[in-house]
Design brief:
Helix content is 26%, strand content 30%. The chain is of the alpha/beta class. The chain folds into 3 domains: 1-65 and 143-208, P-loop containing nucleotide triphosphate hydrolases (Rossmann fold, 3-Layer(aba) Sandwich), CATH 3.40.50.300; 75-140, no CATH class; 215-280. A hairpin with a 6-residue loop joins strand 1 (3-11) and strand 2 (18-27). Helix 2 (82-92) crosses helix 3 (97-110), helix 2 (82-92) runs parallel beside helix 4 and helix 5 (156-171) crosses helix 6 (252-260). It is globular and about 70 Å long. Residues 12, 19, 37, 39-45, 72 line the site of adenosine-5'-triphosphate (ATP).
Length: 282
């Protein structure tokens, strides 16, 4: 579902400075969109307006479909344990109790925090709390997913899971808009970029994958390969009917996960890269 902002103006309180002014923006489904700008430029404000958490004083915000948001700061002092909180939010977002529990357990497992499912949120470590903050936004598979510094505080494995979740959402037709201090976050995966400056938005080119960095080579056999693959790998058909995919090593986990979950199925023959210089056969 296409998201449209037209002439959007936002300020906090009457007489306050305009944080956003005359903002026009069209975001298509399937996009992974980076928002950047200096400290205090209004990135979080833009995400909150898109999330429907802050109201624009001027202009129109057209964001049909469901929305989910990871705030920059997650309120930790909630009277729930992690699983009850996720199940509760799943219900709020319209999932049945059964499906909500399954989705909550799915994300607890993917983030490696099943062991903390029964721990009150206020007693979780910062990193685990952040995983719950991200999981609450991922469980409903929203049409518009807004991530405000969502990677901050996550360990390496969880950052990889979030990268994968973003590409899965976009591949399923969702739209993802994110802010992150790491300029290389989702490099090679973003479809558009916007800079917030003096209340206005300026289109900037999407960040490309580091072509000079370490590469991973994945050889696959498939009836048909998905069109959009994480990391935009180079493709070379080989004489034996397999295809050689060449991707920045940073995207190899995400690419492999996507390949293994593809329909029609993709058979992964071998993986070779900086972590497996000799190659491995799954
Ligand atoms: N609830 C609020 N009430 C009043 N002013 C606010 C509020 N939230 C944000 N602001 C102000 O709006 C401006 C933009 O803030 P915002 O958090 O959107 O910027 P940002 O680009 O996300 O900043 P950062 O990179 O530091 O997170 C700042 O001057 C900030 O102080």
């Amino acid at each position: 579902m296409t998201v449209r902002l037209a002439g959007v103006g936002k300020r906090y309180g009457r007489g306050g400075p305009w944080i956003l002014q005359g903002v026009d923006l069209v975001l298509e489904p399937g996009g992974i969109v980076r928002v950047e700008g200096a400290n205090g430029s209004g990135k979080s404000t833009l995400l909150k307006v898109l999330a429907g958490i802050e109201r624009a004083e001027r202009g129109t915000v057209h964001a049909p479909g469901s929305r989910a948001y990871v705030p920059e700061r997650f309120p930790p002092a909630l009277p729930f344990d992690a699983r009850d909180y996720l199940c509760h939010l799943a219900r709020v977002r319209g999932l049945s109790a059964d499906r909500g529990r399954r989705r909550a357990d799915h994300w607890l497992e993917r983030f490696g925090i099943t062991g903390y499912a029964g721990t009150p949120i206020g007693r979780l470590s910062k990193g685990t709390c952040q995983k719950v903050a991200v999981a609450q936004a991922l469980l409903a598979e929203a049409d518009l997913l807004l991530l405000d510094e969502a990677w901050t505080g996550l360990d390496r494995a969880a950052r990889g899971e979030l990268d994968a979740a973003v590409t899965e959402r976009a591949a399923a037709g969702g739209l993802v808009v994110f802010v992150d201090h790491d300029p290389a976050r989702l490099a090679g995966l973003t479809t558009a970029g916007h800079l917030v400056s003096n209340g206005a938005l300026h289109a900037i080119p999407p960040v490309l994958a580091d072509q000079d960095g370490p590469r991973t080579v994945v050889v696959v056999r498939a009836e048909r390969l998905p069109e959009h693959l994480p990391g935009n790998p180079g493709r070379k058909p080989l004489a034996d009917g397999t295809v050689r995919l060449d991707v920045a090593a940073a995207h190899s986990d995400t690419l492999l996960r996507r390949l293994l979950n593809s329909t029609p199925p993709v058979h992964v023959h071998s993986v070779a890269g900086p972590e497996h210089p000799e190659g491995v056969r799954p």
